[in-house]
Amino acid sequence: PDHFRPGGDRPAALLIVYGLTSLSVLVEPALYQRIFAAASPRVVIRALCVAALLWMAYDWTITVLGIGARVAVEQGQMVAPISPDQAVTQFVIHVLPAGLTGLFAAGLVAAAMSTMDSYLLISASSLVYDFWQPLRRQPMSDALLMRRTRQALVLAAAANICVCLWFRNVERLWIFMT
């Protein structure tokens, strides 16, 4: 079928946009935060090589699971998901036994919480150090920095929830974020 061809059934312009979204890693604050905290350039290079291998394995796994979900729906082994965003999750839940399904769900929640925690802390720190502190024109005490960072974290979380609720589709949210 068309959806299994290299370009799939997506327009070329959308594929170009997907390709460009992969460049977002070059402006990723967490990446630079970790690079600047590394002990040496050699450690950075080794970490980037390992990260690239892990990311390729992740992409390959998600692609294979997506293909498996599509085939399972077409063969009538699985009900079509409400949204394509849910296909991989529903397929894994359909295929795995109960214990492993729970482990998979825990892994999804852990990955989401870890990512959310990291990004919210970076956002809050950036707001406090790059916005609030220069506006004060005087150094803040550690206690005030902590309080402002917690307030900024709540503000960043609320803003992110509003943005996420604005989009009905993970694909469009991803493109918007990049």
Topology (SSEs and partners):
Elements: H1 12-21, H2 29-36, H3 41-74, H4 87-95, H5 98-136, H6 142-166, H7 170-177
Q: What does this entry look like structurally?
A:
With 178 residues, this protein is mainly α. 75% of the residues lie in helices and 0% in strands. It has helices at 12-21, 29-36, 41-74, 87-95, 98-136, 142-166, 170-177. The longest helix has 39 residues, at 98-136. The radius of gyration is 20 Å and the shape is elongated.
Q: Provide mean pLDDT, rounded.
A: 87
Enumerate the spans where pLDDT stays under 50 for 5 or more consecutive residues. none
* Rg computed from alpha carbons, rounded to a whole number of angstroms: 20 Å
Element order: H for helix, E for strand: HHHHHHH
What is the helix fraction of residues, given as a range?
over 70%
Q: Could you give the distance between the termini?
A: 30 Å
Largest sheet properties: none
Q: Helical segment tally?
A: 7
Structural class: mainly alpha
The count of β-strands is: 0
Strand content: under 5%
Shape designation: elongated
Features:
178 residues, mainly alpha, elongated
Put the structure in a nutshell.
The protein has 178 residues and is mainly α. It has helices at residues 12-21, 29-36, 41-74, 87-95, 98-136, 142-166, 170-177.
